[in-house]
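Retro notes, item 3 of 5
We never archived the inputs for the pyridoxal-5'-phosphate complex last cycle. Fixing that now. Sequence and ligand:
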Amino acid sequence: MERIYNFSAGPSMLPLPVLEQAQKELTNYKNSGMSVMELSHRSGWFKEIIEGAEQGLRNLMKIPDNYRVLFLQGGASQQFSMVPMNLLGPSEKVDYVHTGSWSKKAMKEAEKFAEVNVIASSEDGNFTYIPEVTKNMIDEEASYVHITTNNTIEGTAFRNIPDTGDVPLVADMSSNILSEEVDVSKFGLIYAGAQKNIGPAGLTVVIIRDDLIGHADANVPAMLDYKTHSDAGSLYNTPPTFAIYMAKLVFEYIENLGGLKTMEKINREKAELLYETIENSDLFTSPVKKDSRSLMNIPFVSPSAQTDAEFLEEAQERGLETLKGHRSVGGMRASIYNAMPQEGVQALVRFMDEFEHHRNK
Ligand code: PLP
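Structure as it came back at the time:
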């Protein structure tokens, strides 16, 4: 069977050359006589893989030397708890920007440890825009400010990273990490589940500024303390070895493509093509405000649930898969992460045009 265009919000497509390389090396990695899955995480082979993965990410994101890169497990959801457990200062106050379902979950966990202040929210507009965040909104005593840079379900993204002054900025970058250039020095901590732009599910990447490590309470479990993993070079216990290997291949693939500058250019072209098609359509509309639109997750709706259902069924017949919108939003959602080829988006917009044309006959 041919590969399909998978518009899933995650886990999502991986670059085909990466899958092919993994396939080639699957049963015998570099003449070890073993699969990467069978290698000891203490072996020289794996040491080279994890160090290469870290260096690959550092090169791509131009991560400054005073930041550590951690390869963890537990998903972005575990970071919802680890962030307050590790970063909370004496005031026990934290500031959150509420932009959708994922920020809500992050806040719910933080409330178990901290006094959570919502300093800006787009709940009044059903999360169809990114609220403005200015320095004067931030409590100087807050331990950190938390944002979700890309809202996977709602299809919104911060176009400008807020300046939070001396208060560390923490970002859930799960659904747009590596999609565009980013100035890491603006953040105290960045976290992301791997399963969209990095690699297979099971790996969570944390990029943390040195000075934010080592402040967890003594009763925080070792596995939930950033210091444990930082001190051990992400080898305190058995890490998700195969996922880290795949991430390394993805980082190399993006680097060979031309790095994040090129990746961003391609992503902008893909997103523009889809947004333009929606704008020019008399059938489909975007629920998201123009200045807040995501390059990665693009929701669109037709006037009726019946039409949505017909569209989804016919799309599937053409190998355009997983276009159903999240149950909380409805309609359609095309997730066009890094590995979605331009041809995939072209095939989608061609089908959208045809579908609309056909109905008007
Ligand atoms: N945050 C965002 C923005 C997400 O898109 C997701 C998953 O889709 C999560 C957090 C949860 O990630 P995980 O499933 O890795 O816990």
